[in-house]
Every structure is written in structure tokens, then in C-alpha cells.
Design brief:
Blueprint lengths: L4 E2 L20 H22 L6 H10 L8 E6 L2 E6 L2 E7 L6 H18 L1 H5 L2 H13 L7 E3 L1 H12 L1 E3 L2 E6 L2 E7 L4 H4 L7 E5 L2 E2 L5 H8 L6 E7 L7 E6 L1 E3 L4 E6 L2 E6 L6 H16 L5 E5 L6 E2 H9 L6 E6 L7 E4 L11 E5 L6 H11 L4 E4 L7 E7 L5 E10 L15 E2 L10 H10 L4 H11 L5 H9 L9 H12 L1 H7 L13
Parallel strand pairs: 15-16, 16-20, 20-21, 21-24
Antiparallel strand pairs: 1-17, 2-3, 3-4, 5-23, 6-13, 7-8, 9-10, 9-11, 11-12, 14-15, 18-19, 18-23, 22-23
Helix pairs in contact: 1-3, 2-3, 2-5, 9-10, 10-11, 12-15, 15-16
Length: about 525
């Protein structure tokens, strides 16, 4: 299976302006470095972006990004000439290439930036990472909201979330300059060294952490697997500082949690990384061992899940599907057109599944919800999801930064375009008063009596899989995409799992329960 990256929706909103700036390279080194960097990035965009584009327009937007560093600088095109100006004064003219070649336009971009560096003190003092950032941001800003550039430091953090990293197994909080260990993973290097939640981190490798940002501290805690790390730590209740020495291990952030709730197995998925499918499979096995014949079904909570790796979304869905399509993808690059079918596994053997999602359920999480809903393997409860139905491919650049490019659209089994639409639930709780007594029972009863707005929306998607913007707005209005972590959804899910008749009726394509409003 290809290692296509389905980027998390929340990463699209990260501010990338806080990257570190490096020392200024010698003048005779900047130009070839920039040519190589821009060439690698522009070539990747040109080959892989989901829509055809004009490299001349993309590169010009990238050149114009230097005004973020020095607002007096401007880059404009007039016919066959590109003008670099400092206010009203012309700094240089450049001939427009007679080709759309990304390499040629990358070379021109590097020469324009170099001319700007020679003229502008602000641009000349800017580190190369900052220059790469403003140029790539400028180039990508007109594509779509999910295509972006991640500077080297941020890219390393993102790779760690996807693939794991050399670390010590902690989560940090930073409050009024005090750095605390908020969580300590069981059997991690930190736990074995006696570090406990609430302890205070004072220094790393002999250097104090006071004044550092949280990301800067995390960057210092990470390093090569099996490398040594020395920390200065103080107990949370006070006391003298103590030094601890640890060895970093491969840490892959946990994305799956399990707990037994009566006869229902409750799983919460917070994201999709390299370990998600394996972790969920182990949690399912644990649920079966603990509950045996008492296991009535499962609730899979995807609320707030921003997504992650596409291959993990496919294999998670495959854990519960005995047959049929999981999804297909469609794009411009030949490798972006793929089909994913179930391999014949249903580890719950047909037992009821209820999926919970909300307006922050996005990306890979929507793939799972859409696949199980379309195959009538699960009832979806909650609100309409975020609606991020595109796949991003990640290209690592020579400077260790990353270009993230949207390169295909996701099509659930029924064939509609997920992007912009999202997953419309079977049972909508958007407008239900969570404080209403017996709300869960009333939601199910009222929905089954014939409130069919969301059923009509899904039927419309099956009939017209490429809806207009107005049609999408109308569908999503049937169940607004709220952020929702209320216990009410869990109550509804429990009632569905416990009542086989209600669950079966909820799975009926034409008579599915749809929208409910508590009185």
C-alpha cells in the first residue's frame, strides 16, 4: 500500500511564521542553495498538484512573498519583464522565461531573491529558512488551504507525530514560564527514571529551559534513538533539583484508548499515525478477552480527530469490513488514482458499531466514518464532520523542510466527493439540548418517527455525487458541524447498541434516523 499522507486538518491552520532563522550563508553559496531548494519544491508542485497550474504564476507569487520580510520590496510582471523595486526605485529587471519549466522558474526566483538581498538590509539579514518560508508560502497561498510549506523545525515535529521520534515519553505544559511534565508514558525512559506527572523541568543538557517556547523545549528533548539526555528536574511539590540521565527510545504517540462501559467496548481514536491500526487491533483483542460473550458491540469515538495517515485509515476501516470498497482516490498524477477494497476481516463479526463524529472530525477520520456508513456497517451519531476530503503528499526538501501538496480527492464507496461535504450522520445531535431528561431515548424515538432531512441529504449525494456549493450548504444545514464532546452522544450510542431493533432500523438506507430536536 502506498505511503500517501493524509494531513491533519488542524495543521492547515498552524502559523508557520515562528520558524528559526539560521546564520547568513556566504554570498557565493546562497544562490545555488536557493536554486536547489526552489527547484525541488517547484518541481514537486508542478508534477503532483491535483489541478494543472501555470508555473509562471506560482513562481511570481513566491517572489512576491519577500515583501513579508521587507514591505518596501515589490515584484511585478509587465509583459515579458519582471521588475524588482524598492518603493518607487527599480532595483532590477529580469526577462520572463519562454517556458513553464519549474527548474527555470526556480532559478529565476533565486536570482530575484538574491538581488533583493543585495538591496535590502532586512532581506539580507534574514536567515535562509525565513526566506524559504516566505517564498513557498507565497507560492502555495493561491492553491488550496491544505497545501503548505513546513520549515525544517516544524517539519521534524510533524514527522515525529506521524512516524515516531527519539524521545523520552512525556507531554509538557508551559504555564507562566514553569515547564511541567503533564503526562508520562508508562514504561518510557522518563517513567523508568522516576519522573512523574507534575514534576518541573528546569534544564536540558546543562542549559536552563526558562524563556524557551514549548516547541523549542520539545525539540531539545528529541534526538537520535539510543542517544543520552541529561535533565534537571524538581519534584512537583517542591524540593531540591536533581539530575537524571536517560536514553531516548522510539516514541510513537498513542492514538487509541479503550475502556469497558457495561457490555459495550468504547474506543477513542485521537489521530492516525503509524501505530493506530495495530493499537486498535490490540485493544479489540483486549475487549474480547475481558468481555467475552457479554460484548454486545462497540462505540468508536472520532470526535475531534483531525486525521493523519491515509493507509492507517484504510486499515482501520478494514478491521470491521468483511467485503466491499473502502474508498478510491482521484487526481492528476497517475499514482494518485487508487482503489482500496476490504480484505475480508471483520473482527467484531457483525456486532453493532456506532461511530461518533463532530465538526472537528476530519481527513482520515472521515474516511473511516464514510466507509463504514456507506457499507452500512456502522451507525454514525453526532454532527456533520469537517469535510476535508483531499489527500496530501509530503515531499521532503534538501533543507529538511517539507512541501505538502494536495494531490487527490477522496471518494467514499457511494462515490460522492467527500471534500466540502463531510460525513452527514444517521442520527444528528447538533440541535439537541444535552440537559434534557431522557434525551437519548427521545432522540432515537423522534428520529425514527420520520425526521428525514439528513437521509434526504445522503440520498441526494448518491444521486448527485458532485453537488454545487449551494447544495452542499443545504446538506450540511440539515445537521450543522458543531464541535461536540457531550456525554449525550455516548448515551445515544449505548441505546442503539443495546436495542437490536433500533440499530437495524438505523442502518436502513432509506429509513435511517436523521435529525432530532429535543422539545
Amino acid at each position: 500500500m502506498s505511503r500517501i499522507r493524509l494531513a491533519a486538518a488542524f495543521l492547515a491552520t498552524l502559523a508557520l511564521g515562528a520558524c528559526a532563522t539560521g546564520p547568513e550563508p556566504p554570498a557565493d553559496r546562497f544562490l545555488p542553495m536557493a536554486e536547489a531548494e526552489f527547484g525541488a519544491g517547484f518541481t514537486n508542485i508542478d508534477e503532483r498538484y491535483i489541478e494543472p497550474l501555470r508555473m509562471s504564476e506560482l513562481a511570481l507569487s513566491g517572489m512576491q512573498g519577500i515583501s513579508k520580510i521587507d514591505p518596501k520590496l515589490s515584484v511585478t510582471r509587465d509583459g515579458n519583464v519582471i521588475r524588482l523595486a524598492d518603493g518607487e526605485r527599480t532595483v532590477a529587471f529580469f526577462d520572463v522565461p519562454a517556458t513553464e519549466s519549474p527548474v527555470v522558474w526556480a532559478d529565476l526566483t533565486a536570482r530575484v531573491v538574491e538581488a533583493g538581498r543585495a538591496d535590502s538590509a532586512a532581506l539580507g539579514k534574514a536567515g535562509v529558512e525565513r526566506i524559504y518560508e516566505v517564498v513557498f508560502d507565497g507560492a502555495l497561498t493561491h492553491l488550496d488551504r491544505f497545501s503548505r510549506y513546513a520549515p525544517a523545525a516544524l517539519a521534524r515535529l510533524q514527522r515525529g507525530q506521524r512516524d515516531g521520534f527519539g524521545g523520552i515519553g512525556v507531554a509538557l505544559s508551559l504555564d507562566d514560564g514553569v515547564v511541567r511534565f503533564e503526562q508520562v508514558t508508562v514504561d518510557s525512559p522518563a517513567a523508568r527514571a522516576g519522573i512523574e506527572p507534575g514534576d518541573v523541568l528546569l534544564g536540558i543538557a546543562g542549559q536552563p529551559v526558562a524563556g524557551l517556547s514549548r516547541d523549542a523545549i520539545l525539540e531539545r528533548l528529541r534526538g537520535p534513538v539510543d542517544s543520552e539526555l541529561r535533565l534537571s528536574v524538581m519534584a512537583g511539590m517542591g524540593g531540591p533539583p536533581r539530575d537524571v540521565t536517560l536514553r531516548r527510545e522510539l516514541i510513537i504517540p498513542a492514538t487509541v484508548s479503550f475502556e469497558r462501559r457495561g457490555d459495550v467496548a468504547y474506543f477513542r481514536l485521537s489521530g492516525f499515525n503509524e501505530e493506530t491500526t495495530q493499537s486498535l487491533e490490540l485493544a479489540l483483542a483486549r475487549a474480547k478477552r475481558q468481555m467475552g460473550a457479554n460484548l454486545h458491540g462497540a462505540v468508536i469515538d472520532l470526535r475531534g480527530n483531525p486525521g493523519g495517515l491515509l493507509d492507517q485509515a484504510v486499515t482501520v476501516a478494514d478491521l470491521f469490513l468483511a467485503r466491499g470498497r473502502i474508498l478510491s482516490t482521484a487526481g492528476r498524477h497517475p499514482d494518485s488514482n487508487q482503489i482500496f477494497d476490504a480484505a475480508g476481516n471483520d473482527l467484531l463479526e457483525g456486532k453493532p458499531i456506532v461511530l461518533l463524529d463532530d465538526g472537528n472530525t476530519a481527513s482520515a477520520a472521515e474516511v473511516v466514518a464514510a466507509a463504514l456508513q456507506d457499507q452500512r456497517r456502522a451507525v454514525v451519531v453526532g454532527t456533520s464532520s469537517y469535510g476535508k476530503g483531499t489527500v496530501q503528499t509530503v515531499h521532503r526538501l534538501p533543507n529538511d523542510g517539507e512541501i505538502v501538496i494536495t494531490w487527490s480527492r477522496i471518494l467514499p464507496p457511494s462515490g460522492y466527493v467527500l471534500n466540502g461535504v463531510g460525513v452527514i450522520p444517521d442520527l444528528c445531535t447538533s440541535e439537541v439540548d444535552p440537559k434534557a431528561r431522557n434525551a437519548a431515548a427521545r432522540i432515537v424515538d423522534t428520529a425514527l418517527e420520520g425526521h428525514l432531512e439528513t437521509a434526504a441529504a445522503r440520498a441526494s449525494l448518491r444521486a448527485h455525487p458532485r453537488p454545487t456549493v449551494a447544495e452542499i450548504d443545504a446538506m450540511r444545514a440539515a445537521c450543522p458541524p458543531n464541535a461536540n464532546d457531550a456525554p449525550l452522544d455516548l448515551e445515544v450510542a449505548r441505546e442503539l447498541v443495546d436495542d437490536a431493533t433500533l440499530y437495524a432500523r438505523s442502518l436502513e438506507p432509506q429509513g435511517a434516523p436523521e435529525i432530532a430536536k429535543s422539545k
